Amino acid sequence: MHRYKGHAVRKNVAKAHGTAAKDLTRNDPWLAVFEAASANRDVEASEIVPYWVYQVEGGAKIQRIVPTLPLSQDLDRMIALQNSLAIYRMVFGQPRQDDLLEYLQKKMPTEKITEALDNLRVDLTPPAPGIPDVVS
Fold first, then answer.
1. Distance between start and end Cα atoms, the chain
2. Smallest Cα–Cα separation from 52: which of 15, 94, 86?
3. pLDDT in tens, 46-73
4. Could you say which of 1, 32, 74, 100 would form a disulfide bridge with 68 (CB–CB 3.0 to 4.6 Å)?
5. 21, 29 contact by CB (below 8 A)
6. In 3D, which of 100, 77, 89, 99 has the Cα closest to residue 122?
């Protein structure tokens, strides 16, 4: 799960812009590092970058590790939870693509998946700075 300035995000921002932390005029080195990352983001990127998501080549990634005991119902419960999570994220417009596609492939024919996603998608991404918000 991505969190505001989460551990993986901070590691990746520091890997890419760690030299900005040497700015001795700042009391908070993280402020300088995130400002540098924000200044260098793609023009079309939303404000989610770099505060929520920041990927770099060979950088940190969030891993989902679920320990399960042999002969327990944990695996079945985990699958049910993943399905519920995929639907929850889809409703709020922030699906994790792998989970969502796996769930949809189990529930509907492949040719219907694209149509369903186009009809159900809600984009909650904030507009990129300098790009006017268009309401249609």
1. 31
2. 94
3. 888 898 888 899 999 888 787 888 888 8
4. 74
5. yes
6. 89
